Amino acid sequence: MAEITASTIDAVLQRQLDAIKTTVESREVGTVIQVGDGIARIDGLKGAMAGELLEFIGGEGKTVFGLAQNLEEDEVGAVLLGDVTSIKENDQVRTTGRIVEVPSGMGFLGRVVNPLGEPIDGKGPITADGYRPVEFRAPGVIERQGVNEPVQTGILAIDAMIPIGRGQRELIIGDRQTGKTAIAVDTIINSKGKDLICIYVAIGQKASTVATVVETLERYGAMDYTIVVSATASDSAPLQYIAPMAGVAIGEYFMYNGVDGKPASESNPGRHVLCIYDDLSKQAVAYRQMSLTLRRPPGREAYPGDVFYLHSRLLERAVKLSAKNGSGSLTALPVIETQAGDVSAYIPTNVISITDGQIFLQSDLFFQGQRPAVNVGISVSRVGSSAQIKAMKQVAGSLRLDLAAYRELQAFAQFGSDLDKATQDQLNRGARMTELLKQGRYVPMPVEEQVVSIFSGNEGFLDDLPVESITRFREELLQNLRSTKPELLKAIIEEKKISDESAEALKAGIASFKNQFSVEG
Predict the structure, then answer these.
(1) At 198, is the secondary structure helix, strand, or coil?
(2) Does residue 433 have a pLDDT over 80?
(3) Any residues with CB less than 8 A from the CB of 414 and at least 6 apart, and which?
(4) Which residues are catalytic?
(5) Could you tell me which residues come within 8 angstroms of residue 115 by beta carbon, excluding any fewer than 6 positions away?
(6) What is the DSSP letter of 328?
(7) Does the model's pTM come out above 0.85?
(8) pLDDT at res. 25
């Protein structure tokens, strides 16, 4: 037995003291002085920060989180992000020293979550690979590079005339029931196998509508690479307000980190993400409700003065990162609903000025049977042909201007019958090209087939066909080429352009098919 001496006792005590790990945590504690409409006014949090996450302790020990919004002289105004009914006056509130973060990672693919990253699809808990702040500084100019890769929507009218690139912000705008969500869902379905992670953020929609979108994505196998963030109409205004920021934060995790989960770099490329915000009009309404309840002064249309900043700081996070930062990208497709086609209202003009172009859907065209109901006259992509392969540039170069001119001419021609041959030919070609661009829902078209379709119209193969036969001619032509000349379609994809040999072979193939095409069907 070892001899117990003063030195051995001293050594044992020293070892035990060294092993003790203590931390001092300083947290301010305040009291709820008023609560209602999802808003709490708190006394005693002198050191709270703007946007800080607050912890509310309910009467039964239930914890609800909130977001510090108004920092006033004698109180703090906060919005509650959870069960607002469990918080009462005189309940305790603590600061946390951090801002709102959401979990993210590969485990989220195929799942439906709320804006706090909690699963709401009944499929069990999700293991997070990491966390991202919902508010984050957008990358500066030096950290970015130009948009140069296409996001193929699979929709002929959009990929040909209003191309979207990876890292772009393209607005989808139109009245209700004009097919805005259909374009977004088609884009997700067409992203299969294209190394693109899709995030669909549903804001203020009916839960049944969100369930329909999820069911459609599952049916086409698109949920394998999609995350749905849902803040339905029954959720509180604060949850609808942070939903888009939560969606982009989940997406940023994939963009700023490589496949191995480590920060992206030249040797560890980041991933490509597509974020759809459906729709930001409802987020603005939720923010207005929140702001008015917090007694912030109303501005135009009763929206708070910083509603522009709300959308600009969200959409500025869309980016194509430089090679040094991993070359990842985040593409934003915000949706805005207009009232009776009025694009000059406050929120539509705000978002139009922030984004890099807009796809404008018109009710009149929709009811005329032109679907997707894209108005090519005022739709634009400010990235343009940088986001197209060369083959598409070759065939679709002047298509948008030609169709816009055709619409003008068509309106003018209604008033007169004696038209010269050139005008008559332009009207005939325009009618057939317009018909060619019609496309059903959930049937995205590969880019090589889009190129062939427009090529057949440009070369005059459709000019003598009845307008009602155009869509059937396109479908049967593509089916014929897939079975008899697959090498032609493969050449367009591999070369990314139409060579002289390919053009001659295409003309011969289309002419040969046209000879056996039955107009009567």
Answers:
(1) strand
(2) yes
(3) none
(4) 382
(5) 81, 102, 229, 231, 239, 240, 242, 243, 246, 247
(6) -
(7) yes
(8) 66
Average pLDDT, the chain: 92
Q: Would you tell me how many other CB atoms lie within 10 Å of the CB of residue 417?
A: 6
- Best CA proximity match to 57, nearest among 83, 23, 38: 83
DSSP assignment of 352-421, as one string?
A: HHHSSEEEEE-HHHHHTT-SS-B-TTT-EESSGGGGS-HHHHHHHTTHHHHHHHHHHHHHHHTT-S---H
Count CB neighbours of 213 within 10 A: 22
CB-based contact 76:42 (threshold 8 Å)? yes
Q: How many other C-beta atoms lie within 10 A of the C-beta of residue 29? A: 12
pLDDT for residue 24: 64
**Separation of alpha carbons 496 and 490, rounded Å:** 10
How far apart are alpha carbons 394 and 392 in whole angstroms? 5
Query: What three-state secondary structure class fits 429?
Result: helix
Helices and strands of the chain, counted as H and E runs? 16, 17
pLDDT at site 164:
96
Question: Which residues, including other chains, have CB under 8 Å from residue 447's CB and lie 6 or more apart?
Answer: 150, 152, 159, 389, 391, 392, 493
